[in-house]
Specification:
The protein is an alpha+beta fold and about 280 residues long. The protein has a domain at about 5-25 and about 60-170: Ku70, Chain: A, Domain 2, CATH 2.40.290. The chain has six helices and nine strands; from the N terminus they run ββββαββαβββαααα. It has helices spanning about 75-85, 120-130, 185-200, 210-225, 250-260, 270-280; strands spanning about 5-10, 15-20, 60-65, 70-75, 90-95, 105-115, 135-140, 145-155, 155-165. The chain has a seven-stranded mixed barrel. A two-stranded antiparallel ribbon has the order 3-4. A hairpin with a 2-residue loop joins strand 1 (about 5-10) and strand 2 (about 15-20). About 10% of the residues are buried.
Length: about 280
């Protein structure tokens, strides 16, 4: 598993060397884009309005102000800021109850693994958080971006959940809800609604839920491959004949059968020799 971040977590005078690993993965099926006519891949060029292709060293970063004017920020300025603010030691600022954090603040989840010499303090904080039913709030820099984070126990290990800062969460007051009138809901409607929820209430089991679209798409792709429905693109080697693609296991098995030693011929018996002699 690839290490996303390496550093330490501290609370008080306790320091825990740790590593972070992504707890989730993107399972979306990726497609490439090809030109319909010549079947060559679509490429994205960096082009200026003067219609010139530009290289990375010809590009500058600018910030557009609300009044439509621009300020240039150099790579050296960005690098200096990153070095000044990058956090390799994560200090837990506060301890709070998990129930006090609205799920809207949660972003990404990481497994926290103890690094060399960190097993004992790692176990200590994990057990304390379980006992107190609390989580730690800290700040961490991941991929050059400072994040707010929650550190919480999960089974026999710790998780780090990155959180959105308050100014990153939009105000719900901006969402048009229409004319909501609670008095328009009758008591009978409310009771029937409660009854329906009671009937559908169960223990959460994540294995019950699957991405049916992705499963169907995977099947479509596998079916096309099984029917040998490949296309000859500009990237396909010219000497490759897709029509002769065979199953690897079948080819290996056939090779084994072909190279098996043939059974030796049985020696003729004495009786057979006599019969031959008489006939002659």
């Amino acid at each position: 598993m690839h290490t996303v971040w390496k550093g330490s977590i501290s609370f008080g005078l306790v320091n825990i060397p740790v590593k972070l690993f992504s707890a989730v993965e993107d399972r979306d099926i990726k497609f490439r884009q090809f030109h319909k006519e010549c079947l060559s891949p679509i490429k994205y060029r960096k082009v200026a309005e003067c219609d010139d292709d530009v290289t990375n060293d010809e590009i500058i970063k600018v910030y557009e102000s609300p009044n439509g004017r621009f300020v240039e920020i150099t790579e050296e300025e960005i690098k200096k800021l990153k070095e000044e603010h990058e956090l390799k030691q994560v200090a837990i600022i506060d301890f709070v109850k998990l129930s006090e954090i609205d799920p809207i603040y949660f972003d990404k989840t990481y497994f926290i693994g103890s690094d060399s010499g960190g097993a004992k303090p790692y176990t200590l904080i994990s057990e304390i958080l379980k006992k107190t039913k609390k989580i730690g709030i800290a700040k961490i820099t991941i991929r050059s971006k400072e994040r707010l984070a929650a550190i919480r126990p999960h089974n026999n290990m710790l998780l780090l959940e990155t959180l959105h800062f308050p100014d990153e969460v939009r105000s719900s007051a901006d969402v048009p809800l229409g004319a909501a009138d609670k008095s328009a809901i009758s008591e009978k409607e409310f009771d029937v609604g409660l009854m329906l929820i009671d009937q559908l209430t169960t223990k959460f089991d994540p294995t019950k839920y699957t991405d049916t679209y992705r499963t169907a798409l995977e099947k479509l792709i596998q079916d096309k491959m099984a029917r040998n429905e490949y296309i000859q693109t500009a990237e396909t080697p010219a000497n490759e004949d897709r029509s002769n693609v065979v199953d690897l296991m079948a080819a290996l098995q056939a090779s084994i059968e072909k190279t098996k030693p043939k059974p030796a011929a049985k020696p003729k018996t004495a009786k057979a020799k006599q019969t031959t002699k008489k006939t002659s």
